[in-house]
Write a structure and sequence with these properties.
The structure holds 2 protein chains of 2 kinds.
Chain A (H helix, E strand, L loop, with lengths): L1 H12 L3 E4 L2 E3 L5 E3 L3 H14 L19 H9 L3 H7 L4 H7 L5 H16 E3 L1
Antiparallel strand pairs in A: 1-2, 2-3
Chain B lengths: L1 H10 L1 H8 L5 E3 L17 E3 L24 H8 L2 H4 L16 H4 L2 H6 L8 E6 L14 E3 L13 H10 L25 E6 L9 H10 L5 E6 L1 E3 L3 H11 L3 H11 L6 H17 L2 E5 L19 H4 L7 E10 L6 E4 L11 E4 L2 E9 L13 E7 L1 H18 L5 H10 L10 E4 L4 E5 L10 H4 L11 E4 L7 E4 L4 E4 L6 H5 L4 E5 L5 E5 L4 E3 L4 H6 L5 E9 L2 E12 L2 E4 L5 E7 L2 E7 L3 H4 L14 H4 L10 E10 L3 E11 L4 E12 L3 E13 L1 E2 L2 E4 L8 E15 L3 E14 L7 E19 L6 E15 L1 E10 L5 E9 L7 E12 L2 E11 L10 E10 L2
Parallel strand pairs in B: 3-5, 3-6, 4-5, 6-8, 8-9, 9-11, 18-21
Antiparallel strand pairs in B: 1-10, 2-15, 9-10, 12-13, 14-15, 16-17, 18-32, 19-20, 22-23, 23-24, 23-25, 25-26, 26-27, 27-28, 28-29, 29-30, 30-33, 31-32, 33-34, 34-35, 35-36, 35-37, 36-39, 37-38, 39-40, 40-41
Helix pairs in contact in B: 7-13, 8-11, 9-10, 10-11, 13-14
The chains are: A mainly alpha, B alpha+beta.
Chain lengths: 124, 860
């Protein structure tokens, strides 16, 4: 009985995980490539294609990581302002993901969801 | 400084417009010549299953149960000249197109104001983002915020302000300038409605968006009439439906899948709760209004509809109180306009879609808050011109609030139906029709849905041949009996005078249209009184009778009396107009008659100079029918020189009612006096005391009995004089029908009496003088209990006010008359008659009725 519970716990934890070092698979099996900004942008557009979410590929902008601004982005992450920051600066998402703790999947997913909402949700 | 910022704002307008929508579009020819899809129409192509009848409120008074205000056309017209009203129309061009018609005026919003409507007491839920409750357009309103951590406005992001200002922006009444002037402002459709705000993008707590939206709906004030959503996920509804079909997923799981994909992370269970909250809101609070996608957006096209706007296509239980909003660009002046579809089609939501011209409208922009208080003097609030379906949705939400104010007892589903069924769709060809309750149908089009909301039409009664303007009787709409309003009334006999009119004075009733909208009307109009036909009787040509046959064979006697007629100076028998035949042995006889008063048949009074014209009120027993279609049989079971006993039966058979009765009379007479007593029992079918009920007041198939007693006393006096006293008194019971507005009538007690003094041979033996005082039949005691319809609730339960009404009239008519007849010769006479009546028709202090006649009679 105790063994069964442990196995179940493992399954839950592994719902959202990095399949490889740079690939994140969400609970809903959404797959995003975090290896670099271009790969991330491609995975976002593929995600939109998979779910019929209309977009203009020229509007999906993911800036390259600016290594020198490490402390700046760390500050945003540490202050838990990453969601609001992406709402105002969506093209800087990969900087936040890059400097985030890869083990803190919650923050990474919040960044991705904020980015998804910015492009998938429309004020009409 | 503020003007400078305004200038900057307008300078960047084109960019904003592009972001919100705009762009070219599919042109649809319009104008008055466009064909409609439906058959006969009342408003637009609003039609009925069979055929429509006039929807105007011919019953006068006010339109709805929520207010007693009547329509004020001058007030409505004045609103169109109000600066804040006018400012909603952007007076510049949008991508080269300039609108010339104010959409508020096209929607007849000003006419709703003409009814006194403003959204007062109503709340509109705006779920959006980019909000500042300090904006001048929200001044003086009760603003409830679901959360304190919402996304505030900025100089470039103020979508919630813009949407809310169209729905409920305040009317300050002092703005005289254009929108970019220092005192310029605009106003919302429901300008007195309050605001309940929640943020769709920033959740209050936790991480589940569906839970957040569900809680926001559940917490909406009970006064919330509409929940406005001017945003959406850019996934077409067809994509979502295809996914559900292919994967056999539940509604909640399907929706959750696409919410998660758009970054609105939610659990299936919370999506299920959200769907429940949406349904509960529709049942208990208001209408969901959702903008369809702008087809100019990235990767979007005109035939797609955001799946969130089209949720009823996934969960059909959401249909009913759910409206979607699209945009039509109206170009040209009224009467020569053309209509252009620019921001997408209603598509799969067409059957519950409305369209407005939100292409180039002025809205509230950001508020440059330097303090945390409301900008009461409009010094730090800004405005912008925008376009997009986002701003059509709040026009509809505001319209819902106005209708909810007018019809507070209608369900959200019924409010939505009124807007759809009365929208102006005369300018396009319909693809199909939506059928509402009681056969009301309305055509819609794939592009424009049901058309442009017409608030004035929505405030009028909507009828069909299946259900016209009706009085509903019963506990609930669903099991009620409907009576045609114009055919419902109680027409009381003359003996009731003004009793019912007084009893129902100032009473307001409620009638219903085919969509169960409630409308007030003057309930006292349900009472119609019949006038006493006294003067006519005084001067009408008397019916003459002649005894044409009287035979005796032994102790068997027969007698035949017939009406006579005069044509070309020749008299001839006219038994079809009345006859009497008796045959008897010794002191008994049997009598049959037709069209003759039973009182005469039984010897209660005699013919006077071969006529029965002698003052009817004095001698007529009011409980015995004297209609033309009666017949009677009688028998004198005992008759000697001074005493007679008679029994009689009569029956009157009319198209609308039957009346029958049995009477007995006993007469005592000697050379100086005659004393008569009649006891009787009558039954009236479908009426009582000559009163008729129709429709909701019917007394069909009921027998209403009256027991009565009548007394006559004739005393001969010296000097060729006589005095005659006559009186009748009756007790009437009335049996009423279930499912009518009459709960109880009676018992009713009524009377009549008369006194007559006659003297002959005054000047010589050729003249006669008489003086008469009489009281026509009058109700003395009795009451009725009437149900006055007062309205319904959202569950369809019907309510009434039960009122006891005295049936005794306010006055007592007394007729005084003087008659003088002088016979010059056998064939020449002169007759004079003077009469006066007080409290005419038993109405206290009614004008005196006087009559004077002088008649010369020559027979040859």
């Amino acid at each position: 009985m105790q063994r069964s519970l442990i196995i179940f716990f493992v399954v839950i934890v592994s719902c959202t995980h990095f399949a490889q070092d740079d690939i994140i698979v969400t609970e809903d099996n959404f797959i995003f490539n975090l290896s670099n900004s271009k790969a991330f942008r491609s995975s976002i557009m593929k995600h939109f294609d998979n779910f019929g979410i209309a977009y203009n590929k020229h509007s999906i902008i993911v800036d390259e990581v600016i290594i020198d601004k490490n402390e700046y982005y760390q500050s945003i992450l540490n202050n838990n302002n990453h969601i609001e920051y992406i709402e105002d600066n969506p093209n800087e998402i990969f900087n936040l993901i890059y400097f985030a703790d890869r083990n803190n999947e919650e923050i990474i997913l919040e960044c991705i969801n904020s980015f998804l909402r910015f492009h998938a949700v429309k004020k009409l | 400084m503020r003007k400078l910022l305004n200038s900057i704002l307008f300078a960047i307008l084109s960019t904003f417009l592009f972001n919100c929508g705009g762009g070219g579009g599919i042109s649809s020819s319009g104008g008055g010549g466009s064909t409609g899809s439906s058959t006969t129409s009342n408003y637009g192509n609003h039609s009925c299953l069979y055929s429509c009848s006039n929807t105007s409120n011919s019953n006068g008074s006010s339109f709805a149960s929520g207010t007693s205000a009547s329509y004020n056309a001058s007030l409505a017209s004045a609103w169109t000249g109000t600066k804040e009203f006018d400012n909603v129309l952007y007076n510049g061009s949008v991508t080269g197109v300039q609108s010339t018609q104010n959409i508020y005026e096209v929607m007849n919003v000003h006419k709703a104001y003409g009814y006194g409507l403003s959204g007062d007491g109503e709340t509109i839920h705006i779920q959006d983002s980019g909000f500042d409750w300090n904006h001048h357009e929200f001044n003086g309103k009760t603003i409830t915020r679901f959360q304190s951590n919402y996304t505030s406005d900025t100089s470039s992001s103020y979508h919630a302000n813009a949407v809310a200002s169209i729905a409920l922006g305040d009317y300050n009444g002092i703005s005289t300038g254009d929108i970019n002037s220092s005192d310029g402002s605009m106003m919302g459709v429901a300008y007195n409605a309050d605001l309940y705000f929640s943020d769709y993008d920033t959740i209050k707590s936790g991480s589940d968006y569906a839970a957040h939206w569900s809680d926001a709906l559940d917490d909406a004030p009970s006064t919330t009439a509409a929940s406005n959503h001017s945003y959406g996920v850019k996934t077409d509804i067809h994509t979502v439906l295809t996914y559900q079909t292919n994967n056999s997923t539940s509604d909640a799981a399907t929706i959750e899948n696409y919410l998660d994909a758009a970054g609105f992370s939610s659990s299936t269970s919370e999506v299920s709760n959200w769907l429940t909250s949406l349904k509960n809101f529709q049942t208990n609070k208001g209408v969901i209004v959702w903008a369809i996608g702008n087809h100019s957006d990235d990767g979007w096209d005109a035939d797609k509809v955001h799946f969130m706007a089209a949720l009823p296509e996934i969960d059909s239980d959401l249909k009913g109180a759910w409206l979607t909003a699209s945009t039509v660009d109206i170009q040209g002046s009224a009467g020569s306009e053309t209509y252009h579809n620019r921001l997408g089609n209603c598509g799969v939501t067409a059957s519950y879609c409305l369209t407005t011209d939100s292409y180039g409208v002025v809205v509230a922009a950001h508020e440059n808050a330097e303090t945390s208080s409301v900008d009461t003097d409009n010094s730090s609030s800004y405005y912008a011109a925008v376009t997009g379906n986002s701003f059509g949705a709040p026009m509809i939400s505001g319209s819902v609030a106005l209708l909810s104010e007018a019809f507070p007892s209608l369900t959200p589903k019924e409010i939505a139906a009124r807007l759809l069924a009365t929208a102006d769709n005369t300018w396009f060809t319909s693809d199909a029709t939506t059928e509402f309750s009681n056969g009301v149908k309305h055509g819609f089009n794939f592009r424009f849905g049901h058309g442009i909301p017409d608030l004035y039409a929505a405030l009028q009664p909507i009828t069909s041949n299946m259900l016209g303007n009706s009085v509903l009787v019963g506990d609930n709409i669903n099991n009620s009996k409907a009576y045609n309003l114009s055919s419902s009334g109680l027409s009381l006999g003359s003996s009731f005078g003004d009793s019912l009119s007084l009893g129902l004075e100032n009473e307001t009733g409620v009638f219903y249209d085919a969509l169960y909208g409630t409308f007030k009307y003057d309930f006292s109009k349900s009472a119609n009184k019949k006038n006493i036909q006294r003067n006519k009787n005084n001067f009408e040509e008397p019916k003459q009778f002649s005894e044409v046959s009287s035979q005796s064979i032994g102790n068997v006697k027969s007698n035949f009396v017939s009406s006579i007629n005069v044509e070309n100076n020749e008299k001839f028998l006219d038994p079809q107009n009345g006859f009497y035949y008796s045959v008897g042995v010794n002191n008994s006889n049997i009598i049959i008659s037709n069209k003759m008063p039973l009182e005469y048949v039984l010897g209660f009074y005699e013919l006077d100079n071969n006529t029965i014209s002698r003052d009817k009120h004095l001698f007529k027993i009011p409980f015995i029918e004297d209609a033309e279609n009666n017949y009677s049989v009688g028998t004198n079971i005992y008759n000697n020189e001074d005493t007679s006993i008679a029994l009689g039966y009569y029956n009157t058979d009319n198209n609308s009612y039957d009346k029958r009765g049995i009477v007995s009379s006993i007469n005592f007479s000697n050379k100086d006096s005659k004393n008569s007593l009649i006891l009787g029992y009558t039954e009236e079918e479908n009426r009582f005391l000559n009163s008729d009920g129709y429709g909701a007041f019917n007394i069909n198939d009921k027998n209403n009995p009256t027991n009565f007693i009548s007394k006559k006393y004739l005393k001969k006096l010296p000097s060729n004089s006589e005095i005659l006293l006559s009186a009748s008194y009756g007790f009437t019971n009335v049996n009423t029908n279930a499912n009518t507005l009459i709960n109880k009538i009676g018992p009713v007690e009524s009377s009549s009496f008369g006194i007559n003094f006659t003297k002959k041979d005054i000047l010589n033996n050729k003249d006669k003088f008489s003086f008469t005082i009489s009281q026509p039949h009058r109700v003395e005691f009795g009451s009725a209990n009437i149900s006055i319809p007062t309205g319904r609730d959202k569950s369809g339960n019907l309510y009434y006010k039960n009122k006891d009404i005295s049936l005794s009239p306010s006055g007592r008519q007394l007729d005084y008359s003087l008659d003088y007849i002088y016979n010059f010769s056998k064939n020449q006479s002169i007759k004079t008659k003077a009469s006066i009546s007080t409290d005419y028709n038993h109405i206290k202090d009614n004008d005196l009725q006087n009559a004077l006649s002088l008649m010369y009679n020559l027979s040859f």
